[in-house]
Amino acid sequence: MPSEVFARGLAVDLCEQFVLSASLDVPDGWVTRRLGNWSLAHHPTLPVIRVDDPAIGDPGDIPVGWLLGYPITSDGRFLGDGATVTLPGDPVDLADDLGGRFLLIITREDCPAIYPDAVGSYSSVYCPSLRIAASTPALIPYESTTTDRHELIKLLGIPRGGSTFPFGMTARHGVERLLPNHHLDLRTWTMVRHGPRRRYERGELSAEETANRIATIVRRQIGAVMDHIPCYLPLTAGNDSRMLLACARDRCRELSLYTVDMADLNSANDVDTAAAIARRFGLNHQRVPMMRANTAHIDRWLHRTGCSVGERRGLEATTTYQTLDPSRARLNGQIGDFARNVYRLPTDDESTRLTVERLVLQRASHHDVDWRASILPGRARFGLSAEVLGYGARWMDGVAELDALRVLDLVYLERVVAAWAGVWVYAEYFGPGFTIFPMCHSEVTALIMGLPDDVRRKETFNRLVIAQEWPELLDIPVNTPTTQTRLRNKRREVVRRLRHATDGSRT
Q1: 3-class DSSP state of 149
Q2: Closest to 289 (Cα-Cα) out of 307, 265, 268, 310
Q3: Share of the chain above pLDDT 70, in %
Q4: CB–CB of 458/339 below 8 Å?
Q5: pLDDT band at 9 (very low <50, low <70, confident <90, very high)
Q6: Of these four, 183, 242, 391, 494, which has the most CB atoms within 10 Å of its CB?
Q7: What is the Cα gyration radius of the chain?
Q8: What one-character DSSP code corresponds to residue 334?
Q9: CB 321 within 8 A of CB 428
Q10: pLDDT tens digits, 83-136
Q11: How confident is the model at residue 24 (pLDDT cuts 50, 70, 90)?
């Protein structure tokens, strides 16, 4: 349970994390800043950018907020610690214009609020009863209204299952997650939907034009990060990391590619495919052998994530990741699978009737399990509480005017990315390197949601981007283990089982 993990992890270094409130108990060694009635405390590793508002004073006067994390401007500038940005008027306009991984906090008396990035990749939660916002539930004090959600945690199998807490829920009662396309009104401590505001009608642009526009944004954001810090790109046999590599073609030899070998068929295929790509194009690539995660590292992983996410592979590889160069940032392909039919069934169309039960029970897989078969087991159907269904119903009320396909897209962005990818990144900071998603931009998500329906159904968009940017990358099969890879993995599995049996006979 979270309370047990937090008790064991009091000394854990909560890199990149923050707390916002009117009054704070600041962890040792954290930086404190104050604007008006608001106090921000943050770990020294968290970059903080000043937000000015020319409408209420000259530049250099008191700022009106902070921008946390790793934002990238529309002209390709990476905003580092200590930089300044100007509020264009509506804070949503600033949040929509920026890419990267960030959180915008506005402290102006007339509209204090917190705005996440386009996919919520900089996790934040809030507790209305205590009037505290923070990066994870680990930083929210325990009281009678903020206890652990014991039954739901067990039901979802978190942290080792692949589930996420649905529609703004967290591992704690009374602690909510701030979702993308929403902001947190700090006057009422309620989450308000304001988007998505960018919108393309399906088929308004051709798939080729959409691919070109998205590649331009991704290329710009990769370049901005690489201008700021050396970068890793974890390369697999799949579409998403290869699409990033294609967009980074002009600077690919500056990248360090790596693949973690987790001793299963998927990883073996990832390693072989990535190595083949590196050999073919003369790129720098390393195979990273799997190391068994030790107890201290697992506790740190759980504490940094606030026990808020199911991510078995990340948890098991937490010791392995610490062998990488901590001075490099990591470009992650997450969001690339948004262009595939995540959460859509083959029979779904714009008029499909969606129910709260379907959206709560259905989940998407992030790795090797076909999500279409990934429905929570029968016991979960009877274990759904009125609280869980209430969260789902409130979420659906906010998207009532949208057609079913757009609603299912938002389920992915707001239930999976924000509640999954936006959380585990805290655990995998080893600094000064950080993780960032080059596809995180409101224009990218809007363009994908406007793709022609046949492209979404055929799930060919990622390869279309690769074909435009670096077509030779498609000469090497995607997600297709060779016979040699399968045989080698079988031999390795036999050896592993024999060792396990021998170890068991000695006990």
Answers
A1: coil
A2: 268
A3: 90
A4: no
A5: low
A6: 242
A7: 22
A8: T
A9: yes
A10: 999 999 899 999 999 999 999 999 998 999 999 999 999 999 999 999 999 999
A11: confident
For residue 438, the tally of other CB atoms under 10 A from its CB is: 31
- Host H or E run for residue 360: helix 356-361
pLDDT score of 305: 94
- Beginning with the edge strand found earlier in the chain, give each strand of the sheet holding 329-331 in spatial order: 285-289, 256-261, 231-234, 329-331, 435-436
DSSP per-residue codes, 65-134: EEEEEEEE-TTS-B--TT-EEE--SSHHHHHHH-EEEEEEEE--TTS-EEEE-TT--S--EEETTTTEEE
Q: What is the pLDDT of residue 58?
A: 59
Residue with tokens 């008191």: 62
CB 288 within 8 Å of CB 323: yes
Helix (H) or strand (E) holding 261, with range, is strand 256-261
For residues 95 and 104, is the Cβ–Cβ distance under 8 A?
A: yes
Listing from the earlier edge strand, what are the strands of the sheet with 18-21?
31-35, 38-42, 18-21, 132-134, 125-127, 176-177
pLDDT tens per residue, range 417-448: 899 999 999 999 988 999 999 999 999 999 99
Judge whether 41 and 31 are in contact, CB under 8 Å.
Answer: yes
- Range in 190-204, 357-371, 376-390, 422-436 with the lowest mean pLDDT: 357-371
pLDDT at 381: 46
Q: Provide the CB-side half-sphere exposure for 231 (13 A, CA).
A: 26
Strand ranges inside 369-456, DSSP E: 435-436
- As a whole number of angstroms, the distance between CA 404 and CA 9 comes to 43
Q: 174 in helix, strand or coil?
A: coil
Contact 443, 198 (CB under 8 A): yes
SS3 content of the chain, % helix, strand, coil (to 5): 40, 15, 40
Cis status of the peptide bond prior to 196, with omega within 30 of 0: yes
Q: Residue 368 has what pLDDT?
A: 32
Rounded Cα distance between 70 and 84, Å, is 13
pLDDT the model gives residue 60:
55
**What phi and psi values does residue 435 have, to the nearest 5 degrees?**
-105, 140
Here the tokens at position 134 are 């923070």
| Residue 77 to residue 339: CA distance in whole angstroms | 26
48 beta partners: 68
Q: First CA to last CA across the chain, in angstroms?
A: 30
Whole-angstrom CA distances from 131 to 34, 101, 138, 351 are 16, 24, 15, 40
Cβ 274 vs Cβ 235: under 8 Å: yes
In the numeric block, which tokens belong to residue 476?
Answer: 């090497």
CB 42 within 8 Å of CB 48: yes
Following DSSP, what letter does each residue of 400-421 receive, concatenated?
Answer: TTS-HHHHHHHHIIIIIIIIII
Tell me the residue type at 130.
Answer: L
Q: Within the chain, what is the greatest distance between any pair of CA atoms? A: 76
Beta bridge partners of 103: 68, 116
172 contacts 137 by C-beta, under 8 angstroms: yes
